[in-house]
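Reading a protein record of the kind used here takes only a little practice. The record below shows the convention in full.

——
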Amino acid sequence: MLDPEVTITHIRENIQQKIKDAGYTTIEKFAYENNLTKSTITRAINGSRNPRLVTLIEIANALNINLSELLDLCHIEQPQARKTKQSNRNK
């Protein structure tokens, strides 16, 4: 089961990394070149609120990747999963 805090943190970090991987040196440049606002991107990465689905779709489209690649949920390491793996190793 996905932990919401861990999941949102992972998504925020992944957005930032995907923008960097696409060759953008700043959030401003990414936003400007893709007709998005800097504040929209900044909120998606650092905001006090969770990114809206429409914002995530806009970012994925701007990066020319699909939404599932942007979210990258299959690589989230959940705290509970780590505990289970550790307890299995101790047996």
Remarks:
- Helices lie at 4-21, 27-33, 38-46, 53-62, 67-71, 79-89.
